[in-house]
Amino acid sequence: MDLMGFIRSLPKAELHLHIEGTLEPEMMFDLARRNGVALPYASVEATRSAYAFSDLQSFLELYYAGATALLHERDFYELAMAYYCRAAEDGVVHAEVFFDPQTHTARGIPFDTVLNGLERAGRDAQEHLGISSRLILCFLRHLSEDDAFATLEEARPHRHRIHGVGLDSSELGNPPAKFERVFSVCRDLGLHVVAHAGEEGPPAYIWEALGRLRAERIDHGVRAVEDPALLARLARDLVPLTVCPISNVKLRVFPAMAQHNLKLLLEQGLRITLNSDDPAYFGGYLAENFLAAAEALALTRGQLVTLARNSLLASFVTETERAPWLQRLEQVGEPDPVPN
Ligand code: ADE
Ligand code: ZN
Predict the structure, then answer these.
(1) In terms of pTM, does the model score above 0.90?
(2) In principle, which of 50, 68, 124, 198 could form an S-S bond with 221, CB 3.0–4.6 Å?
(3) List 24, 171, 199, 288, catalytic entry
C-alpha cells in the first residue's frame, strides 16, 4: 500500500480543528453571494493567492474576514458537513471541533444559530458518515476577560451541548493567566479544558496553561522544546500536544517541514498528535498533514501508527467508544517498539 493509502487507513481522531478554518474560498464566495455579504476579494483565485502569511496575526486577519460570510444556521451546518465529508475520506473516526462564538455574536448572530447548525451537522455526520464529534467553545484571547465571561453566560444554557472550552487567537501578549477565572468557572461546570499555548508564545505560556487553566491538552505546544523541565513534565504526565505541522510551516513557526520538531518530541516520549488547524487556509487536511510530516521527517509507519493511536488516547471519549477504534488500528499496524 502506498504511504497516503496507509495514512488514510489509520483510524484517527482530529483534536485541533477550527471549523471557521475549514471555509474553502468556493464556499466563502457562494455564502457571501447568498447572504449579500461583500468580501475583500475579487475572486476565488484572488482569495487563494492572498493566503501567504508571515505569522499568526497575518493569518487571523484573513480568517476573521472570511468568517463574515457565515450568517445563518444553514451556513454553519453546510460548513461543518463539508468538513466531516472531507475528514471521512482521510480516515477520521472522531473530531473534537473548535468554534469561535465571539467571531459571530459580535456581528449580531445569536449564539444558538451557530450551535444549532454545528450540532445538526455533527448528528448527520454520525448517521451518514459514521464520524463521531464533540464541540469545543474557544474564547478569543485578544478580547477581554469580561467578553469571555459574557460569552460563557450565553453558553451556559447550552452547557450539555458543549464538551469543552479552549483558548485561541493572538497568543503573544495574551497569556493564559488572563483567563484563569473564566476557566475556573468552566471547570466547575464540568467542561473539559484545552488551550493554545507555545505556538508563537514562550514556554512560560505552556506552564500557565497547565498550572493556571489546568489544561488537559496543549494546542500546538511546539515551543516546549526550549524548556527541558517542561519537556520532562509533558512526558511524565503524558499531556497531549495537538501539533499542526502544515499550519506551523505556513505561519512560519518553522522555516520548513524538515525543521519541524514533532519527530524529536515524539521520540522524547511526548504524547504528540497531528491535526490540521485551519485546512482551508493552509492547504492540507489531516491525511495531508500526516503525509507532509512523514515525507519531510522520514517518519516510520510505526511512528504514524503511534500518532494515530495518540490521537485516540488523547480524545475526550469514553473507553467504550475508544476501544473499537484502537482494535481497528491494531489490525492496520503496530507502533515501533521504542519509547514513543
Ligand atoms: N484560530 C484559528 N487558528 C488558530 C491558530 N493556529 N492559533 C491561534 N488561533 C487560531
Ligand atoms: Zn489552532
Answers:
(1) yes
(2) 198
(3) 199
